[in-house]
Structures are given as structure tokens and as C-alpha cells.
Amino acid sequence: MMDFNVKKLVKDAGAALSRVVQLTEETLGTSEKTELDAHFEHLADRANMTKSWTEKILRNMEAMLTPNPGNRIEDFFYEKIDKKKPNRLSNLEYVGQDMIEAGSEFGPGIAYGAALIKVGQCQQKLGQIERDFIGTAANCYIQPLRKFLDGEMKTISKEMAILETKRLDLDACKNRVRKARSMLGQQSDSGVSPEVLLDQAERELRIAQSEFDRQSEITKLLLEGVSSSQAGHLRCLHEFAEAQARHYAQCHATMQELQRELAGLTGSSYHPVDHQTPETTENEVDRARVLCDYEARDTSELNLARDEVISVSEISGDEDYLMGFRGIEKGKVPRAFIERISSN
């Protein structure tokens, strides 16, 4: 048994040395190299491109969903040891927590204290919406990409490396056959006739060719499977886009609700007068509820959503439009789409 292992070790070392010699000769241009067919090369190039872009998209997605590098490293560590990730608060939730505490300290009975509590509760709700989106995005898009890279692409890389080894062995055999043929009719230094050496070299070449062809087919099948993986990634991308659309819709609805609550607070006196145009500065500012959705026709108008509360003021000489204000936004709004609910 020990003798067999030593012989195998010597044989493997000889094969490895032969591959190194073959690769060196190819690099120097003194030896021919077996080229793979154009279709195979196309498949290999596409797989490499897919791997490269998938890695880049995955890194950017992880950075977008978890901006803190320290948190990403911590999450990676917990995944590796198969433990649950820490349930840390988001920045939105921290801000919301502080606002609620400050509002309670100032007193919920005054306008500013009540507003702080309302905005803080909104930030906490937005934080939970964000947390849900991050979890959904990880499940529907990040995990499939990571599984593809850790599974299919690693297998392809392994089989490509084996194919390169088989290709070096094949070309080394071809070189031995050419050398044996060139020795025909001459006296061999080893005492073995050139004909015998040629016959042995040709047998080794047939075996090497067979192994190379078999490995080439295995690798080609794996490379062709990349198309199926891309189709799967396309479905995952659709799911991610839908999750992101739901996320922003929930955020928008939450902010609209906050605006209504702030407008309804007793004693609230906020109006965006700093953003009025000269024509409306002297006019009275009222609060108004939107009766139905309205899409602005150009940049001079304001988009409206049903039931939201905005501030409005008269525009001198305009019977069809009022000037509308929403936070730092302003623009004309049609009178028919709003109903005034209070006046200063």
C-alpha cells in the first residue's frame, strides 16, 4: 500500500511538472495550444460577465439595504455561525424615539410637544416599513443572487479549472506524439524503438483526447445553464421592484396621514408663507382638503392626492386656481379639486 502511494505521488508530480512545462512553452510561443470552439468561448465569456455583474449588483444591494459597513460585517458573521441577527433599531426609529421622548417632556398639551410625538410615531412607523422592505428584498433578490454565486458559479469555476488541466495534458500528449514521429528511423537513447515510443504516445493521446472531450461537454452543459439562472434572476428582479413600489407607497400613505394629523392639531399655526410668491404674500393662508387626485400638467402646478390637507391662498386675478403649499413644495391647484376647511 505504501509502495502504491509513493508511485502515485511520483506520477502526479510528473503530470503536474508536464503541465507547467506545457504552459510555459505556450506562453513563450514554442508550443501549440488546443483552442476551444467559438460557441464554448461565447458561453464562457457570458458566464464570466454574469458572475462579474452579479457580484457588483449584490455588493451594491447589500450596501443600499444596510448602509452601515459595521452592521454588514456583523450580519455576515451571524450568518456564518448560523445565529439570528441582532434586532437593532434603524436611524428612523432612533429619531422617532427621541422625538416622542422630547414631545412628552415638552408636554403633549402644547402644539410643539404634540407635533413632536406625532412626527416621532410616524418615523417609527416608517422605520418598521423600511425593516419589512429590507427583509423582503433580501429574501426575493439578494439570497437568490448569493446562492447563484456560491453554488452554480463556484461549480462552473471548478469544472473550468479541471478542463484547463485536461487541455494541458492533451497538448502535452500531442507534443510527445510529434516528437516520437520525428524520431522515426533514428536510434533511441533509451533503447526502446521509436515505433514503440510512438505507439505509446498515440495511446496516451487518445486517452487524453477522450478525457478532454468529456470534460468539455460537462463544462458546456453547466455554462448553458447560466441562461436558466438569468431567467430566474429576472423573476426575482420583478419581485424586488414590486416590493420597492409597495414600500414607497406605504411611506407616501404614512406621510399623508401625518400631514392630516398635524393639520388637525389644536392650536397648529404652521403655514409655509416663506415659500409664497410675491403675488400671494399679502393674501390670507387657509387650510384645505383635497377632494380627489390631481396630476399637475406642468412644473407650475402641484400634484394632489385625495384627502390630503394642504395650505392655500388666493392668486390675484385668477378665478380658476389657488396657490397651494405642501411643506417646501408650492404650485397652483385648481379650485374645483379642493375644499377649504379653516381660515386664519
Mean pLDDT metric: 83
Order of helices and strands: HHHHHHHEEEEE
Task: Describe the strand arrangement of the main beta sheet, using strand numbers.
Answer: 4-3-2-1-5
Provide the helix percentage. 55-70%
Uncertain spans: 266-282
Number of helices: 7
Strand content: 5-15%
Q: Roughly how many Å apart are the termini?
A: 100 Å
Largest sheet: 5 strands, antiparallel
> How many strands appear in the DSSP assignment?
5
Keywords: SH3 domain
Domain SH3: 283-343
Protein name: Endophilin-B1 isoform X1
Family: Belongs to the endophilin family.
Characterize the structure shown.
The chain has 344 residues and is α+β, with helices and mostly antiparallel strands. It contains seven helices and five strands; from the N terminus they run H-H-H-H-H-H-H-E-E-E-E-E. It has helices at residues 2-28, 38-65, 69-80, 91-106, 111-182, 194-224, 226-264, and strands at 285-290, 309-314, 321-326, 329-334, 338-343. The protein has a five-stranded antiparallel beta sheet. Helix 1 (2-28) packs across helix 5 (111-182), helix 2 packs antiparallel against helix 5 (111-182) and helix 5 (111-182) packs antiparallel against helix 6. The longest helix is centred in the middle third of the chain and has 72 residues, at 111-182. It is elongated, with a radius of gyration of 36 Å. The relative contact order is 0.08. Mean pLDDT is 83; it is low at 266-282. Residues 25-271 form the BAR domain. Residues 283-343 form the SH3 domain. One of its GO terms (cellular component) is membrane. This is Endophilin-B1 isoform X1. Pfam families: BAR (PF03114), SH3_9 (PF14604).
